[in-house]
């Protein structure tokens, strides 16, 4: 994976290069699933954190939990979650937009003073299409798309996941190498200069 492949993954449709990674341990909580699926989601978080060399904990000192995953059937359910409108600014118009386009997933990030990710809210609407996808695939896909602040078009043409010959769904090796490079301690927690992609490419090349 070279810079011509990496830079678009963090370049938004507006043309801005915007990168951020987590600056604190991830403390997750999952709503709307049974115990079996809860284990799958937390297992995916743990696996991706281990890949990145990033910490996962039970509690965030400032926020309590900072990685909130909601599984729901209809977007309207979120209107009835207590205090969610305090956590997510503009919740009502956001839900109206998601309903209008019949979206089945959405992610909201919050950042600290250094620009690092300090919290994320992941919403997965289990419509007919999403319900056909195995829980392991849904969980891994959502966690991978939340471990970094990717471009809004990063995985529209090609998924971050791949399928092995026996049918197992795994993280693409090149995306895994990129995540590891992004969490290299010498790399910044946030960047807005496209030259950052050159530094990522150099570290991916060293790892390979």
Strand and helix order: HEEHEHHEEHHEEHEH
Q: What's the architecture of the largest domain, going by CATH?
A: 2-Layer Sandwich
Q: Work out the radius of gyration.
A: 17 Å
Averaged pLDDT, please? 94
> What is the global morphology?
globular
Which structural class should the secondary elements be placed in?
alpha/beta
Characterization of the model:
- By secondary structure, this protein is α/β, with parallel strands linked by helices.
- It folds into 2 domains: 1-21 and 148-208, no CATH class; 22-129, Chitobiase, domain 2 (2-Layer Sandwich).
- It has helices at residues 3-6, 35-52, 84-87, 91-100, 128-131, 135-147, 173-182, 195-207; strands at 19-20, 28-31, 67-72, 105-111, 117-125, 161-163, 169-171, 190-191.
- Strand 6 and strand 7 (169-171) form a beta hairpin.
- It is globular and about 45 Å long.
- The model has no long low-confidence stretch (mean pLDDT 94).
């Amino acid at each position: 994976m070279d810079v011509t492949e990496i830079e678009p993954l963090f370049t938004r449709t507006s043309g801005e290069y915007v990168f951020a990674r987590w600056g604190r341990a991830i403390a997750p909580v999952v709503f709307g699933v049974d115990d079996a699926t809860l284990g799958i989601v937390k297992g995916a978080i743990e696996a991706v954190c281990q890949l990145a060399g990033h910490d996962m904990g039970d509690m965030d000192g400032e926020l309590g939990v900072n990685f909130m995953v909601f599984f729901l059937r209809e977007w309207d359910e979120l209107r009835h979650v207590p205090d969610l409108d305090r956590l997510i600014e503009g919740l009502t118009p956001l839900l109206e937009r998601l309903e209008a386009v019949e979206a089945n997933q959405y992610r909201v990030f919050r950042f600290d003073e250094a620009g690092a990710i300090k919290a994320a809210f992941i919403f997965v609407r289990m419509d007919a299409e999403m319900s056909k996808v195995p829980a392991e695939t849904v969980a891994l896909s959502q966690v991978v798309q939340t471990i970094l602040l990717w471009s809004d078009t990063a995985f529209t043409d090609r998924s971050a996941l791949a399928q092995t010959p026996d049918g197992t769904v795994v993280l693409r090796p090149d995306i895994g190498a990129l995540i590891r490079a992004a969490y290299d301690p010498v790399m910044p927690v946030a960047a807005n200069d496209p030259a950052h992609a050159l530094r990522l490419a150099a570290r991916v090349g060293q790892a390979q």
